[in-house]
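ugh ok so i messed up the first submission bc i forgot one of the chains. this is the corrected input, ALL of the components this time, i swear. 665 residues overall. if the numbers dont match what u have on ur side tell me asap before i send this to the collaborators (the ones from the other lab, u know who)
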Amino acid sequence: MALLEIKRDACTGCGLCIDACPFGALSLDGERIIKVSEACTGCGACVPVCPTAALSLPEVEKKSVPDLNSYQGVWVWVEQNNGRASSISWEMIGEGKRLAEKRRTMLTACVLGHQAEHIAREAIAYGADRVFLVDDPTLKVYRTDPYARCLVELVRKYKPEIFLLGASTRGRDLAGAVATYLYTGLTADCTGLEIEEGSNLLLQIRPAFGGNIMATIKCENYRPQMATVRHHVFEMPVPDHSHQGQIVREKPVMLEEQIATRVLDLIVEKNEINIADAKIIVSGGRGLKGPEGFTLIHELAEVLGGAVGASRAAVDAGWISYAHQVGQTGRTVRPDLYVACGISGAIQHQAGMRTSKIIVAINKDPEAPIFQIADYGIVGDLFSVVPALTRALKKRLNK
Amino acid sequence: MQAIVCIKQVPDTTEVKIDPERGTLIREGVPSIINPFDTYAIEEALRWKEKLGGKVTVITMGPPQALNALKEAVAMGADEAILLSDPAFAGADTWATAYTLAAAIRKIGHFDLIFCGRQAIDGDTGQVGPGVATQLQINQLTYVCKISSLDLAQKRIEVERLVEEGKEVVQSSLPCLITVVKDINQPRYPTILGIRRSQKVQIPIWTSKDLEVDPALIGLNGSPTRVVKIETPPARQGKCQIMQAESVEQQAELLAEKLLAEKIIV
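and heres the new structure output, hopefully the right one now
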């Protein structure tokens, strides 16, 4: 599947591209010129590292999409469940506003729900200039089909240039369906968005390979440019209740009898602070040596008023449930304080917590990578350090 | 139960390390594996086949060496495997991948359920599952942590989905596509018998000519998105202050002072 083109006279055989290839598709094998195997997926990771510009990917033929310019405005989907908006949507509104101002255009929020006018008003307070409100009993809780088809109709009717959704479970579920219907590009889990000078295209920046690389992705010839954006990456905007906006009511496109799914129940874990929203998280890893180790983590979390997180190693070992997992294959968090206990800090774990405001590391190995990103650290045995810290904080907080 | 499992061969990212000087990925010796989330999808399909009878077919799109991933799935117990491989498929983004997989699933014909992992650990998008479901115009249930019931006669499935607030109980009609999270089961190891069978099994390779696909919609050409730049992320500038003191108690006291001074704890 070799897509990569190699300019044979430019290649010096320096081998820099071999290290850059995530698929191990490049080799020298004693030759002077680099060889590309069938493992090449055309990802482009090697292209920028070549000092002699010997590597390139084939130019893509431009699709003639005549009405690209008729797509205008920035849209944000406002996620709600049973009448409560989720904070990730307001982060999207804040970021959407910034992009809309850069593009000198309007910010529109899409609110789908039942008796959800208060959410539409909230969206305006957070910065939306216009809200499409689709208020119907079929939209009370999220279901893929009625939500996706409704958004698809709105996009076809009003043609936005950019469409952002939160990368929550519902947002990812919905975005994948909507972009497929519309045959347009969708970039998942972005951690950065910019407008490119000159082209005015949306540059979508996202981690891949477990946060080992950052990829910038463009969607040149299709509209809208769609992206889901990770929770806690952008700041929460401050609501301004004097901000004016227009609420436009639209109709749903499906009847209840046409919808093949029913949401029967939502089972909420009691007495647990959800790590996705926690301001303080105390996490435990392999160093805890067993499920009992989490007792220490719970005690420290309790004193701090925080939630309990875990590394993949601790979850895989069965010491704590998957809902607590922080990292690439778990949740992305951005608390004010993240305390990592017995977590070495592999890149996959860092991908889920490196944007925390303050990071504290407690680990017996002074070489553990977690210390490279931490603000404060204690090198020592967590079984004595963590209880000591719990006691020290308890004393100071009079608990 | 006729089940189709979509899998992907990925580099084991837990083995990927960074060259600290050059800031590039060290790929040498990094093995290719079945995307870990997909092993849960295979396992779940096998468990329901064992209960209800039927057949599990595993498909993947990738270069010829992706055959190894399919063989591993057969060694776990999958009945059949199909490889979609063609230079014309290369460079596909999630849209073009879903389009191609959906075309292959149409060719396979009848199915009750499609199983996928929640996301692949290299791309981390989680978009191909919903893409395939939408292409096929069937229901999707993503982030499934439990299949509570599966009734082929009534064409009904009930699952629990892992959402931010907890677990959502959802019922849907069949056929549908589910993507699974790792809470759902513990994947089995291949058996000796399975490994022997996987060595002998014939795995057909389908190219674009075998599928009803529009050549303009596959591979790099059919992909709306384009990767324009790849870089290694800047290191976080943590100037880690290590608490130095005579005893653990004193270290803890020092740290507590520092944390209170940050005015984060209330």
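quick check: Chain B touches chain A through 102 residues (CB under 8 Å). that seems consistent at least. Chain B has one domain: 2-217.
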